[in-house]
Amino acid sequence: MSLAVMIAKMSTGLGRTCAIFFLTLLFSLPLGMIVALLRMSKNKFIANITRAIISVLRGTPLMLQLLAVTYGPYYLFRFSVSRNKLIPVVIAFAINYAAYFAEIYRGGIESMSVGQYEAAEVLGYSKVQTFFRIILPQVIKRILPSVTNEIVTLVKDTSMAFTVSYQEMFTIGKEIANSQTSFVPFIVAGVFYFVFNALVDYVMGRAEKRLNYYR
Predict the structure, then answer these.
(1) Where are the domains of the chain?
(2) DSSP state string for 104-137
(3) Under CATH, to which class is 3-211 assigned?
């Protein structure tokens, strides 16, 4: 099989890889903020339950979570989540990454000085206004490097979808490699992930520079 044909076949899974990446970010970033706020709740029961859930999600392999979300409902309740495996794959990825983003958000929020909250209260801001207008913009600036690191990891983790036989780019490359007894498909996949991560790093780097308005 020529290199051009190999790349053409692998490109059929490229859109699916990108779908996992962008849909995961779309759902996990806001979900992570919700989880972070629950984790910081003054209600000890809610805070402890959320902390336990985060511990489970961060302490177990993403591969296991993919299998649980995709096949668990059928084995437990004889109910299939979806014939389209993209849905359970995105659910598993979004929940997993939301747990990591939640801890990043929490660290950023708790790093803010109490004085800022007090100053906002003196100026007549409500708690919601204080959070969204004063605290959150600063938190985003502080946590962006950590978020970038997780996003870079996500690019590579999309290949984990092969666990549930979802035909993304790495899975197709693996099948070609097995049928052709060639390592070239893995090299092609590696080049793609490198280029993808280079683009992510560039975009996030530009975002960091735009937020460095005090320098």
Answers:
(1) 3-211
(2) HHHHHHHTS-HHHHHHHHHTT--HHHIIIIIIHH
(3) mainly alpha
